[in-house]
Amino acid sequence: MSTKVILSIDRKDIRIAHAKYEGNKVFLHQFSKIAATKLDDFLRNDKNKEYVVVNSFQDIYFDNIKLPPADDNATKTMIDNNVARLHPEITSAASISFFVSERVEGNVLEREYFVITVKKDEINSLQRRFLANGKQMEALYIDYLTMMAFAPSSEKPFILDFVSGEYRNFLLIKEGNIVFVRSFDQSEYSSGYGAVNIPESAPETVAESSSGYSAALDSGLGIAGISDDSAESSSGLDIAGLSEDSSEKIAEVSVEKPSQAIPKGVSGYSASSYAGSTGYDALTLNMTVTHCRQLLRISPEFALLIEQIKDSDLDSIQASVPVTALGLPPELQVHSKAEFFENIQPAAASFMKTAVKDSEKYNMLTNEYNYFKYTEVFIKAAMAACVVIILAALLGLSKTAVAIKSDKDQISSLRLSNSDMDSVLKENKQLMDEIAFKQRNATLLLSSVAEIKPLEVLSQVFRADPGEITINQLSYESKSAGIANVLIGGAVKEDEYAKLQEKADAFVDKLKTIQGTKEFNANVSLGQRGFNVKFTYERPR
After folding, report:
1. Are 448 and 503 in contact (CB under 8 A)?
2. Which member of 287, 349, 354, 428 has the greatest number of CB atoms within 10 A?
3. 343-371: buried (b, 16+ CB within 10 Å) or exposed (e) per residue?
4. pLDDT of residue 111
5. What sign does the CA torsion over 375, 379, 385, 390 have?
6. What mean pLDDT value characterizes the chain?
7. Is 219's pLDDT higher than 50?
8. Which residues contact 125 (CB under 8 A, 6 or more apart)?
C-alpha cells in the first residue's frame, strides 16, 4: 500500500490530505487546513519528503490558436511562439494545449487548439520554496483542471460546473479535451440557490481573449475559448448573447427545457435535472450554454455539478440542459460525503494519474526542475552503488590478505626445495599484483564518489532567493575531486541597464554567501534582459 500527501494551495488556505492506494482503491484521510502563509513552516517541520501539489495561480491566460498540421514537437514549438506573440508581457510561459477541431479555411487545412497558460515565475517560486525546505514535488496541477479527474467518459460535449476559490467555473469538454473555460466572480451573484442577484447594468465589454483572473474577471465575468472568427460576432452582445440595450431584461431570458435525459451508465453520478425557480447557478450556467451554442457552435448535452447539494435544492433550479450532481466515486473511500466535498481539490488530485488520460500533460513542473530532481535521485543511487562496490572490493582485499598470510605460514612451516619455493613465490607475486589492482580500483571508485559531491551546490543555489530573477539555466562541470564549475543563467524583467545590473549584483552577492564558492564572473545583457554568472564551488573540507 502506497501513500501520497496532497497539498491544495490557494491564496488564503492550504488543504492537506493523505491518500492511501491499494489496487484501484483510494482511501482519503487525515484532512487538515492551514493558512497559506504557513507553507514554509509546514514544509520545514513535516516528515514527508514528496508531495502532489494543486495550486491556484494568480494569472491564467486562455487562447484559441490555429496552426497547420505538424508533429507533436513542431506543434508545441508553434504554440509557444504564438503565446509569446499574444502575451509579450509574460517573460516565460508554461502552457497546456487541447485539440479542438480540424477544418479547411481558404483551401488550407488548419488545426485549432485551446491553450491554457500560466507564468513560469509562479511555478519557479513554488519550486524554490519546496527545494529550500528539502522537499520535492511529484506533480504540480492548476487547481480547477484537476476536476477532469471526475469527468465522465462521453462522446458528446458536456459542461463541468464547480467552484474554486472565489469563482464558479465552467469547463466545456468535447471528446475528452477542454475546449472552453469560463469563470464567474461569485461576489457578483447570489451565493445561494434562491432569487437571482442581477447586476444593475450588464458589462459594457467582453474580453475577446482572457488574460487571466487579474484582467478578464475584472468585469465580474470571465470568458475564454472564443476562436478568432467568432470573436467578431460577439461584439454588440452581452455574455448571454443579448444586445447591449437588453441588460434590464436578463431576468426574463427564457430557459429551454431539457430535451434529453442524463446519459446512462455514468458510474458514481446521480441523475437529476434543475427545475423550478431560477437561481444563481441556473443563470450562470444558462449564460454559458447560450455562449457555447451561439458563438462556439457547440451544444452541451448535459452539465455535471461538482458540489454537495441536496436533491431538493437541485430539483428547485432550472437550467437549459440536463444536470447531474457528482456522487462519491466507487473507487474512493472517505469518512463522509461532506469531508469529500470540503476537500474536493486534493481529492481530485489523488485521482489524476488513474482517471485522466495523458495526465502527465497537466503536470506543470518545469523541465529544469525535473532534471534537477531526477539527477539528485540518480546521484543517490550511484553513490549507494559505489559504496556497495567499494565494500565488495575491500572484502576481496581482506580475503586476499588472509590467503597470503596462509601461504606465508605454509612456507615457514615446510622445508621446500628451490623449485617448490619458486613456484610459491610466483603465486604470491600474482596475489600481490591482484591486491594492487583492487587497491587502484577502490581508489578510483572513492575518487568518483568525491567528484559527485559538488552537485550538492545545486541544492544550495535554490536557497539563494533570486527575487525578481527567473533562473532558466543551471549547469555544472567537475574539475577534480570535490571541485566543480557552475553556470547560472537568468532573465530579469527590466528595461534599464542600471536596474538590471543592480538586481543581478544582488543575486551574485547571495551566491557568494554559499560556503565554498569563489572566482565569480558575471555578465549582464540588456538586449536579452538577462545575465549569466560563472563561479567555482569547492566542497568544504
Report:
1. no
2. 349
3. bbbbbbbbbbbebbeebeebbbbbeebee
4. 93
5. positive
6. 74
7. no
8. none
C-alpha 44/C-alpha 31 separation (Å) is 19
3-state secondary structure of 389: helix
Closest CA to 424 of 411, 412, 406: 411
316 SS3 class: coil
**pLDDT on residue 141:** 96
Ramachandran sector of residue 82 (left: φ over 0; alpha: ψ -120 to 50; beta: rest): alpha
Task: Give per-residue pLDDT as tens, 424-480.
Answer: 667 666 666 666 666 665 555 545 444 545 455 666 666 666 666 777 777 777 777
Where residue 234 falls among pLDDT bands split at 50, 70, 90? Answer: very low
- Looking at residue 417, its amino acid is S
3-state class (DSSP) for residue 23: coil
Give me the sheet containing 323-326, strands edge to edge.
Answer: 177-185, 167-174, 158-164, 303-306, 323-326, 269-271
Nearest residue to 114 via CA among 174, 155, 167, 163: 174
pLDDT tens digits, 354-390: 888 888 999 999 887 876 655 554 445 555 555 666 6
Look at the block and give the residue holding cell 462556439.
Answer: 296
Please name the residues in contact with 120: beta carbons below 8 A apart, sequence gap of 6 or more: 91, 92, 93, 94, 366, 470
Give the DSSP per-residue string, 139-170: EEEEGGGGGGGGPPP-SS-EEEEEEETTEEEE
- The rounded distance, in Å, linking the Cα atoms of 118 and 59 is 6
What pTM was computed for the model? 0.61
Higher pLDDT, 111 or 495: 111
Cell 467555473 belongs to which residue? 169
Nearest alpha carbon to residue 304 among 104, 118, 157: 157
* Choice between 200 and 441, residue whose per-residue pLDDT is larger: 441
- Cα–Cα distance for residue pair 161/307, rounded to 1 Å: 8
Among 404, 394, 493, residue whose Cα is nearest residue 445 = 394
As a 3-state breakdown, the chain gives helix, strand, coil percent values, each rounded to 5, of 40, 30, 30
SS3 532: strand
Short-list 118, 226, 113, 229, CA closest to 177:
113
pLDDT of residue 256: 36
Asked whether the beta carbons of 536 and 517 are under 8 A apart, the reply is yes
Phi, psi dihedral angles at 247 (to 5 degrees): -65, -30
> ∠ CA(144), CA(282), CA(349), 5° rounding?
15
**Strands 108-119 and 136-142, how do they pair?**
unpaired
Residue 440: Cβ-neighbour burial (10 angstroms; 0-12, 13-18, 19+): exposed
Which residue in 168, 158, 297 sits closest to 234, CA to CA?
A: 297
Cα 185 → chain centroid:
24
